[in-house]
Amino acid sequence: MQTFINLCKAIVGNEHVLTSEVEQKSYLEDWRQRVVGKALAIVRPSNTEQVAALVQLCQDHHVPIVPQGGNTGLVFGSIPDQSGTAIVLSLKRLQGIRKIDLDNHTMTVEAGCLLAQVQEAANEVGLLFPLSLASEGSCTIGGNLSTNAGGTAVLRYGNTRELCLGLEVVTAQGEIWNGLRELRKDNTGYDLRDLFIGAEGTLGIITACVLKLFPKPTQTQTVFTSLDSIEQAVALLETGKKQLGASLTGFELINQISLELVHHYFPQLQRIFSETSAWYVLLEVTNHGTVYDLDHQLEQVCATALEQDIILNASIAKTEKQAKNCWAIRESISAAQAKAGKNIKHDISLPISQIANFVKTTDAILQTAYPGCRMVTFGHLGDGNLHYNVSSPVHKDPEQFLEHQKIVNQIVHDQTMQHAGSISAEHGIGELKKAELRRYKSKVEMQLMRAIKNALDPQNLMNPGKILE
């Protein structure tokens, strides 16, 4: 394979073909340090033409390709297998902001741009790119598109798919499809854009995209509430939708265990309430009016919720510092879980009307099977996305509890499907969930997916072993 390596170097330069163990380490280990793969080389192109040349080279030499952005994924989608026969094609050097169209409210950027870079580029011209994730300082927009990432503002703005108008893609044959259209209406055949978004690099490699931009809200307000039940959280969501309309931007659910983990491991974050409750909801509201308008709307929502016994208490952030503290609490849950020990994670979505019954039923089943197990439940209730995580009982070894992961997953995912949900809301399938996908997708769906894969990537060199076998 030395000839192949030398040809890669001829395309991207010697310093951008990494073959030593030390150089490759950060590219081969997943974000949570659970899996380490092997690669023939890490190859780092700087533009779309180099990506296309590398894909053509891999086709000629039958070398598998694992596309990688920021390597912040949670389902091993950007990690190669143990064979060491694949290259990791890192897109981190594709960081150009190609165009900003102020009148059209669009931005054309390359796939290796960090999400935070895209947000800042929009901010600098007085506009907003609303996708917001805890990993925005390290994840790339190409990775966000490849997994159709969600985040905290889906309720108002939608997933990454809804924020993208066009793509540039290098196909499995090494051809460049220029679909960088800045159109909001384009009914000219099959929607190829939507085919590549969410495909996790198994059909082609996204190298650039056209993103929607929005007017920046003139006012933002944050509210933390405490509640007794998820039923009340759902009622609060309905009240907020009715009284706030499109101003309701974020609606995050947090259970007591999640909050206590954060305050235990991050004591510098200020507590919102002195008393504890079973559940909490963090709301964000934005508008283009005045501070008075927003405060008045929020006071009405909170007053209605208190009068109807929907919430126990509410704290409206009075300063930007207080608002940042509220969001820091929400965004620190995963880090607090990691400090507490390994746990069994689930990224599921459900109809909002089914969430309360799902949690009640599934909690009971798991407590019967594993008495004392701790449910760390939080997520984007506004769009039905729960991070339903199961931790070992106190005084039990988390590593030993992980031995039950397969059974726990089946319990959770069986209940998810019984409640008309999905086993993956925003993290994707990758390597981690492909067996689960076969279990819960219909035969017809799997056949259609395989037909698409076989048609676009007949040699099965694009991220092989991910999503499909």
TrEMBL record:
GO terms for molecular function: catalytic activity; FAD binding. Pfam families: FAD-oxidase_C, FAD_binding_4. InterPro entries: FAD-bd_oxidored_4_C, FAD-bd_PCMH, FAD-bd_PCMH-like_sf, FAD-bd_PCMH_sub1, FAD-bd_PCMH_sub2, FAD-linked_Oxase-like_C, FAD-oxidored/transferase_4, Oxid_FAD_bind_N. Residues 35-216 form the FAD-binding PCMH-type domain. The keyword Oxidoreductase does not apply. It comes from the Bacteria. The keyword Aminoacyl-tRNA synthetase does not apply. Keywords: FAD, Flavoprotein. Its cofactor is FAD. GO terms for biological process: respiratory electron transport chain. PANTHER family: BLL6224 PROTEIN, D-2-HYDROXYGLUTARATE DEHYDROGENASE, MITOCHONDRIAL. Belongs to the FAD-binding oxidoreductase/transferase type 4 family. This is FAD-binding oxidoreductase. It comes from Undibacterium fentianense.
